[in-house]
Design goal:
Elements lengths: L1 H13 L3 H23 L8 H10 L11 H19 L4 H16 L3 H17 L7 H78 L5 H29 L18 H12 L3 E6 L7 H21 L5 E7 L3 E8 L14 H12 L3 E6 L5 E8 L3 H4 L1
Parallel strand pairs: 1-2
Antiparallel strand pairs: 2-3, 3-5, 4-5
Helix pairs in contact: 1-2, 2-3, 2-5, 3-4, 4-5, 4-6, 5-6, 5-7, 6-7, 7-8, 7-11, 9-10, 10-11
């Protein structure tokens, strides 16, 4: 039941007419309370019924301006409440509620500095008033409640800002990850284009060579070889047209391209890693070594390259072992360092480098796992489906 009342109260407060409705209701309650007090008996202070009702209205009606002019509304309510409290000791309960509402609003949505300044007069009255006036009994609860209202409003604002900041940081992180994934996919597309373009070019050249160098070839066979060559050249043209934007950035000058690397260049890559990091780096090969499809070799090379880069970045000086195991249908990669492993935030296990590796492995239908290694360090394990060139033929 209390939760339902709280929800209704928040709904009224958040509505455009909420402050006006609250001001009207509290003003009516303040007038009734003043009339009841006047009827209960004469006061030792010169306070007539009209003046009491006027003070009650002054402590509540400015609440209607809270949404439009929060600073003015809060100042007017506080000034009237202090006058009623100090001058006549006649601050109504409705006036106190209005005071708490304006202070809470300033703490949560308005000026924090003004909210604190409006609390100070209550604290001053509570601390400096002599005991014989009886004012302290009114001032102390009012000061405590006013400070609590400001603190609660400030806490709500702090929590809301923290939630908004976390949401912004998550959105930025997701955007960066998406950008990194797109960049890595573009790079993979460029490299796979180079590999596939080479094979399609070879198909075209071999078909044309077979047609021209085979004597007494039937006309139908020569026509088929000519069609194969034309189809390969058309496919190559379409591929270059579709992926041309990925090969070079718009407006960028042409760059000199080198042949895509493979597993035969791993020793050079490890030598560069040793020279750059000054740490021990070993290459361990097991199983019958066989030539693999260029796409698989390129993927393997890039994974080892990125793993060595990650090791230098997150575990400088750590020794790294790169293991290649040739199996009949798979190539297994295992890259392990003896560094401290991922930190508590897990940043190393979910960074852009691993994201790029996963993109590459997924592109060739492989599997990748990465995480803390048994006994310490970081371990990356990859299984790539392969077929030797002889089997592909």
């Amino acid at each position: 039941m209390s939760e339902g009342i709280t929800r209704r109260t928040r709904r009224i407060a958040d509505s455009p007419d909420g402050p006006a409705v609250a001001a009207a209701a509290l003003g009516l309650l303040a007038a009734v309370e003043s009339a009841v007090r006047a009827a209960a008996g004469p006061s030792d202070l010169p306070l007539t019924l009209p003046l009491a009702i006027l003070l009650g209205l002054c402590t509540t009606v400015p609440l209607a301006l809270l949404r439009v002019h929060p600073a003015a509304a809060a100042t007017a309510v506080t000034a009237a409440s202090l006058l009623a409290l100090v001058g006549y000791r006649d601050l109504t309960l409705a006036g106190l509620v209005a005071q708490l509402l304006v202070l809470h609003h300033l703490g949560s949505r308005g000026s924090r500095r003004l909210a604190v300044l409006l609390v100070l007069p209550y604290v001053a009255v509570a601390l400096t008033d002599p005991d014989d006036t009886g004012l302290r009994g009114y001032a102390v609860p009012a000061a405590v409640l006013a400070a609590a209202a400001v603190a609660d409003g400030n806490g709500r604002r702090t929590r809301a800002e923290a939630v908004a900041r976390d949401a912004t940081e998550r959105a930025i992180a997701n955007t960066l990850l998406e950008h990194a994934a797109r960049g890595e996919r573009a790079r993979i597309a460029r490299e796979l284009h180079d590999v596939v373009a080479h094979h399609i070019s070879m198909i075209s050249v071999q078909a044309e060579t077979a047609r021209l160098t085979t004597p007494d070839m039937p006309e139908a066979g020569a026509k088929r070889l000519l069609d194969i060559g034309d189809t390969a050249r058309a496919a190559l043209t379409e591929m270059r047209r579709l992926l041309g934007v990925l090969r070079e950035d718009a407006g960028a000058p042409p760059v000199t391209r080198k042949p895509q690397p493979g597993l035969t260049q791993l020793n050079e890559l490890l030598d560069e890693a040793r020279a750059a990091g000054g740490a021990s780096t070993r290459l361990i090969v097991s199983g019958p070594v066989a030539p693999l499809d260029p796409g698989i070799e390129l993927t393997s090379y890039r994974i080892v390259q990125e793993a060595l880069t990650n090791a230098r970045r997150h575990a400088p000086g750590a020794a790294v072992d790169v293991e290649l195991r040739y199996a009949p249908q798979t190539l297994d990669l295992r890259i392990r360092d003896n560094g401290p492993g991922p930190d508590r935030s897990g940043a190393r296990a979910s960074g852009h480098g691993l994201l790029g590796m996963r993109e590459r492995v997924a592109a060739v239908g492989g599997e990748l796992s990465a995480g803390p290694a048994p006994g310490g360090g970081f371990l990356i394990e990859v299984r790539l489906p392969t077929g030797t060139k002889e089997a592909l033929r």
